[in-house]
Known about the structure:
Layout: H1 3-17, E1 27-31, H2 36-50, E2 56-60, H3 66-75, E3 82-88, H4 92-101, E4 105-107, E5 111-120, H5 136-141, E6 150-153, H6 160-171, E7 178-181, H7 185-197, E8 204-208, H8 212-215, E9 218-220, E10 231-232, H9 240-243, E11 245-246, E12 253-260, H10 263-266, H11 268-276, H12 281-293, H13 298-308, H14 310-317
Amino acid sequence: MNTTVLRVVLAAVACVVFTATAPAQEKITIAELDWDGGKAIAHFLEAVIEGPLASEAQIIRGLADQGIIGLGMSEGGGAIDVHPDLWMPNNQDFWDKYIDGNQTVATSLPYPASEGMYVPKYMAKTVQSIEDLASPKISALFDTDGNGKGEYWAGDSDWGAAKISLIKFKSYGLSELWEPSVVNYEKFKTQLKTAYSQRKPLLFYNWTPESIHSAYHLVLLKEPEPFEGCRELKLTRTDWLDASTQKCKTADSTVYVAYSKSLQQRNPRVARFLSNLRLDPALISEWILKIDREKQDPSDVVRAWIKANHDTVEEWIK
């Protein structure tokens, strides 16, 4: 998406967000990402900002485009203030442009997370490692359209993780036997539910913390441990797939809440809270489980936690 289009979209978002009575600079806008952890964290941030911090916040529904989020935060006008779940190194281009480059975006303290390729546990005896995927007999098990290639879900089209999945399959020499499926996460979860109930083969990218690991028995495929030179990503280039390589597992990620530095002037208390914040993956998994599997209201889940952990929240605020 080019810069002109991004600015038009941001202007439209700003018009919707700031028609409320509060002045634009007083409302903290939070992007609602399209994965469960990001959504849970967005509701948590909204609850703290509107509760203990006595400010006004709004979650911008369905805003998962990293380019729009980054530009909005960088411009500092309040169209988008907070990215609730910035995964590194998957979002390296975002980091390079707005955090190291423009220096218009800051981050919280990170929490650790892991990611890779998974199969349901009932497939674990058949497929145990990335090396197993080089077998034509294995790929044939995952071929649903009869074109001679097995399918795997690489991730959502807006995610840097989807690019990395494609890079891995190319680097491991698997492109002749496998082809990616790039559909939105909600559609994939429907596919997973169906495949799991029928015990059908399914190969897919995923991560922890995430609710599907509580709902299903899933197994992470083994990959080579990281070694020097095993990973060279050039995700911002137009020829990113040809230019990039990764022949090892993705090391545990570091995940941040990112926010516009303009908040340091527009709402210093919120900026201080966001800079001090450090979430825990077990806590996020707990929120996700209650929201996604138990169908509890996200606001109720996070507000109950805030009430029960008042001292922790106060430390982040101070």
